[in-house]
Amino acid sequence: MTIKAPTLNVAGLGADPLAQRISEKQTKWKYKIAVLSGKGGVGKSTVAVNLAAALAKKGYFVGVLDADIHGPNVAKMLGVDRAEVLAEKREDGGFEMIPPMNDFMGQTTPIKVMSMGFLVPEDQPIIWRGSLVTKAIKQLLGDVKWGELDFMIIDFPPGTGDEILTVTQSLQLDAAIIVTTPQEVALLDTGKAVNMMKKMEVPYIAVVENMSYLICPHCGNEIDLFGRGGGRKLAEKEGVDFLGEIPIDLKAREASDAGIPIVLYGDTVAAKAFVGIVDKLVKKLGEMKGESSESE
Ligand SMILES: Nc1ncnc2c1ncn2[C@@H]1O[C@H](COP(=O)(O)OP(=O)(O)OP(=O)(O)O)[C@@H](O)[C@H]1O
Q1: Mean pLDDT, 10 residues at a time, over the chain (296 residues)?
Q2: Whose CA is nearest to atom 5 of ligand 1?
Q3: Which atom, in ligand 1's list, is nearest to the CA of 158?
Q4: Which of 114, 165, 167, 190 has a CA that sits 20 to 30 A from residue 134's CA?
Q5: pTM of the model
């Protein structure tokens, strides 16, 4: 039986049963990957949804949690912003939300999406203190019927705040993908995000440089609008992996407005860059799991 999802009960939540549910659920998610950035507007959500779409196009089962409580936009980027969230009653009397899904007309496995954006009206700001944000994120992890997933991708708000701490403390993350643009000012903040992930002992940390260059639509030359190569340098300096450069794609806005990730929108250089990044990521994570199973 399904019913309309209740609003989040952030006020009277018992922490322990919820933490227990999160622990149980995460055993069914093979890889848990955080996507974050030190600075806003660098394309973190764009990277998160395109990683998800590229993985789902390969046949993996993918869930995306939009942990940006204050500015959720992943649902729109994945074309499910108009979906209604239903809920099922649990045996303990609580409710479990059913995540909306999109398979982009059969191009991907159904990508499951959960976001604060589903639960509050689009034009309403969320004015909550940190403790409420923490509870809301825990519910989006533990009170959602995620099921078995190959990849759980978590899109964080910019910075190094409460949401990130909550998730890294509640989940055993396998990887953190840190998105930056090439400018100095973005790189400074990116360094902080890398160091936060090191402190949280996330096993695999990698940098992705977005908006690395623009391909001139007239002459086809590459134009380094914001400089180039800073992401790679930062990764080298911090001793973490560099997964690749994504160019500015003039179709990105069109794709985003249509609710379709770039990798499913056309055969562009940016789409190919995302596929290359996903291939490297899958290989690396596979090697890591292989290594740990050998050592067991
Ligand atoms: N490679 C790209 N080419 C062209 N446009 C891009 C690219 N990456 C991101 N954008 C655009 O830049 C804008 C910001 O991207 P996005 O929302 O992904 O950034 P963000 O870092 O998640 O932002 P926020 O700080 O709000 O969380 C969006 O309009 C997006 O379409």
Answers
A1: 55 66 95 92 94 98 90 90 90 92 97 87 64 82 96 88 80 94 82 92 96 86 81 93 94 88 93 97 93 47
A2: 252
A3: 25
A4: 190
A5: 0.90
